[in-house]
Amino acid sequence: MAAAGDVPDIVRPEAVSADWLTRVLQAGGVDAVVRGFTAKNVGTGQIGESVRFTLDYLRAGDDAPATLVGKFPSPGDTSRATGVMLGNYVREVNFYRHLAPSALIATPRCFFADIDEATHEFVLMMEDLAPATQGDQLVGVTLAQAHAVLEEAAKLHASHWGDDGLDDLPWLQGSKHAPSPVTKEMVTAVWAAFRARYGDRVSALAVEIGEAICATFGAPVEHLSPRCLTHNDFRPDNMMFATPAGGRAVTVLDWQTAGYGTGATDVAYFLGGAVPFDVRRAHEAALLDGYLGKLKSLGVSGYTRDALLRDYAAGSFQLFLTAFFAAVMVNQTARGDDMFFVMLNGAAAQIDDTGALALLK
């Protein structure tokens, strides 16, 4: 391990040097000296910038990685301001520092994580998960991948099921000490901006749901089921999937929205946005049964299927809300627009199928 004086500074990608990468590795327990490197942006993150560093070593032990992936604040002013306003950068660094080791779910090994909470400049240096590949919201997932993802969801939720200690973490979304920067007035304004921007692309069903969400946003939430550690942006773009060349079956990334909430919200969020409507409808019951069975195998007791179905319906609104909110609050791109409508329309169909609108009346 590096000495205290050798802890890396927080830098942006353009300021990364061979010496800095050496200190990152040594801070993460790797005895190596980097001679040089190449860097290339990876992924399509909306709030953060990810860069793959391919390393050339002067000296390298057996555990020295060939590549690292670094995550930094978004270079786009709008996206970066959103990340700061929502506390996303602070939340993700603290997740890797404090909760990743106990979360049970597969996450990347983190070699170095630091943030300046005054400026929200941060850096995360993690293992490169290749030959696994990033999921794609526009493509969705196979049924086999969906089952594997829900198994990982159950691991995450079981890890801190009913753990009231999470309520004392002010950086964790949904905890009793967490700030609430999103207000009813903000959601209403963002929804109006979304409708104005996209016009007829917003379906009549989506309009009905969006208006209902705005009318009831901020109402007290009664947690009928035990709360747990949640991801809250549980979708393919934040996951890495194995390929024929190798890699873990599923590894979950992007913990900027980690929270203390209802686990079934992650399940609804994923199935509503990542699985085609007809596939979800045909296999939803089996997928939910698999999730519930995995929870029970990990020691969760007293959580009935009826309770899961109730929580699943209530959780279906999160994907819809995220889709229109993010569409307005991050830098606009053509792919982003398409992705957000996949999420919005998938959530609308799910809300309709579950009769969840009745919960807002």
- Lateral strand order in the biggest sheet: 1-2-3-5-4
- The CATH homologous superfamily of the largest domain corresponds to Aminoglycoside phosphotransferase (APH), C-terminal lobe
Low-confidence stretches: 1-5
**What do we call the CATH topology of the largest domain?**
Aminoglycoside 3'-phosphotransferase, Chain: A, domain 2
CATH class of the largest domain: Alpha Beta
* Cα-to-Cα separation, first versus last residue: 57 Å
Question: What is the residue-averaged pLDDT?
Answer: 93
Note the total helix count. 11
SSE pattern, N- to C-terminal: HEEEHHEEEHHHEEEEHHHHH
Fold and architecture overview:
There is one protein chain. The protein has 361 residues and is of the alpha+beta class. It folds into two domains: 8-127, Phosphorylase Kinase, domain 1 (2-Layer Sandwich); 133-360, Alpha-Beta Complex (Aminoglycoside 3'-phosphotransferase, Chain: A, domain 2), CATH 3.90.1200. The chain has eleven helices and ten strands. The strands form three sheets. A five-stranded antiparallel sheet has the order 1-2-3-5-4, sandwiched between helices.
